[in-house]
Write a structure and sequence with these properties.
Length: 235
């Protein structure tokens, strides 16, 4: 009965294995390097804003999956906060290119195609770090923007599935209610089965008692006949 009950807690998702999370780790490391090398060391709030936006995107994914064990609703909120932070980061990189008159690479650009293939195939920070010192500001910005676009697209797909799950299964209150209802239903069914079994046993007992009474009557009858036979023999 217990194996068929609805689950209250969600299955734990290993967020570390998700490509969009791995790419946010890359973005945090890349943004930290970019801010250190290409933004003023002091007097510019953009440094803190970009690094914090990159960190917020990554950390809210971590917290979202931790809280997702009990609350799909909270997970949805935190993952959307992560998306918002990463959108802000993307806008900062775009602003940097525009204000410095650097190029935003386009699909017809040879560099764009090579960068796109690289970002699609690689998800780990260790794949990118060796290139950080070799890439200039324009390259770092374009790689970051490309990664941010990919992350947003993947998160949007994941969130769509999560929203559908929330609609069909509800939050923890709904799952707890379903579990309790299922448990009570199981108890009722078990009690009904036991009652039917008890009724059947009583019927069987009644039949057995009747058969036993019949056997006793037959025994008494035989004993009377035997006594009568012995009496005739004495005469």
């Amino acid at each position: 009965m217990d194996n068929d009950l609805p689950k209250v807690l969600q299955n734990e998702v290993q967020y570390q294995d998700l490509f969009f999370y791995q790419k946010t780790e890359v973005l945090y490391a890349l943004t930290y390097h970019f801010a250190k090398c290409y933004l003023p060391a002091s007097g510019d709030r953009t440094v803190d804003q970009m690094v914090q936006a990159a960190r917020s995107g990554k950390q809210n994914i971590v917290e979202g999956f931790a809280d997702g064990m009990t609350s799909t609703e909270l997970q949805l909120k935190l993952l959307n906060v992560a998306r918002s932070s990463l959108k802000e980061l993307k806008a900062d990189y775009e602003d940097y290119l525009q204000t410095r008159h650097l190029r935003r690479w386009q699909p017809h650009d040879q560099r764009y195609e090579a960068m796109l293939a690289f970002c699609r195939q690689r998800n780990k920070t260790s794949d990118y770090e060796p290139y950080f010192p070799k890439w200039g500001a324009e390259e770092l910005c374009n790689v970051a923007i490309t990664l941010l676009h990919m992350v947003d697209k993947m998160m949007k797909t994941y969130l769509s599935g999560l929203e559908q799950q929330f609609i069909t299964q509800g939050g923890i209150k709904e799952r707890m209610h379903a579990a309790r209802t299922g448990y009570r239903k199981g108890l009722d069914e078990e009690l009904s089965r036991l009652r039917e079994e008890n009724k059947s046993l009583r019927q069987q007992l009644s039949v057995a008692q009747q058969q036993n009474e019949q056997l006793l009557n037959e025994k008494r009858h035989l004993e009377v006949l035997l006594m009568q036979e012995r009496g005739r023999r004495r005469e």
